[in-house]
Specification:
Blueprint: H1 2-33, H2 40-54, H3 57-70, H4 74-87, H5 90-110
Helix pairs in contact: 1-2, 2-3, 3-4, 4-5
Length: 111
């Protein structure tokens, strides 16, 4: 019975490892194409999301911050806020959420 359970766990580990490998490959591939894309902040937002899936919180923060420096966006502020919570920087998370809400309200009123 133990061998069946360990085989099952081994299969789960192999699938997870493959998924992480695929995400890392996608991260590298997307990062390499970054300079070839016209919408750099969308690519950086995507890279940040991939880093979140991999739990690379520091890299995700860097990509989201970089995307926001190109073009502020409420959705990216929200993602940055979530990352800051994961890192344990609650004040910075609250600031990101607040800035995203303010920006979203401004965009809503200007339409």
């Amino acid at each position: 019975r133990d061998s069946v359970a360990s085989r099952g766990l081994g299969d789960v580990y192999k699938r997870q490892r493959k998924t992480v490998f695929q995400l890392c490959s996608l991260l590298t591939e997307t990062n390499d194409k970054l300079t070839m894309q016209t919408s750099e902040n969308k690519i950086k937002f995507t890279l940040g999301n991939i880093c979140c899936q991999l739990k690379f919180w520091g890299k995700a923060r860097d990509y989201f911050s970089s995307a926001l420096s190109i073009e502020p966006n409420p959705k990216i502020f929200a993602s940055l806020g979530e990352v800051m919570i994961q890192i344990g920087e609650i004040d910075a998370a609250n600031d990101a959420f607040r800035r995203g809400l303010i920006l979203g309200n401004q965009e809503g009123f200007s339409r």
